[in-house]
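BUG: 3D viewer hangs when loading the predicted structure for this chain

Environment: internal workstation, default settings.
Expected: structure renders.
Actual: progress bar stalls at 90%.

Input used:
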Amino acid sequence: MKDSAFTRRVLSIVRRIPPGRVATYGDVAHAAGRTRAWRAVGNIMMNCSTPDVPCHRVVAAAGGLGGYGGNLEMKRGLLRAEGVLVSGSRIRDFRERRWPKAEKPAKKPRRTPPRRLT
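Structure tokens produced before the viewer hung:
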């Protein structure tokens, strides 16, 4: 695996994902400072064999399992062992399990039209 600064940042971020939580490839790319590099994150995860990096906690967008070196059964089992509800190839409670907790965008104040003077 190529040991670039980006790779080191990605692995550091993935190590911080707590058990029972998941992050998308895009979430990790964003946290590593390269918002559009989700495919690079996927490649880093695919080629990572470091035992202290919980690659199984990185999933596809919208809670799909994504890949795991071709062993989805193992990824599914590791996530279930951490209490993550997995149904088929999707995480059932994805919004609650996502890390970091996605903040809802603040609602813009409703603008009232100016009053007409008659």
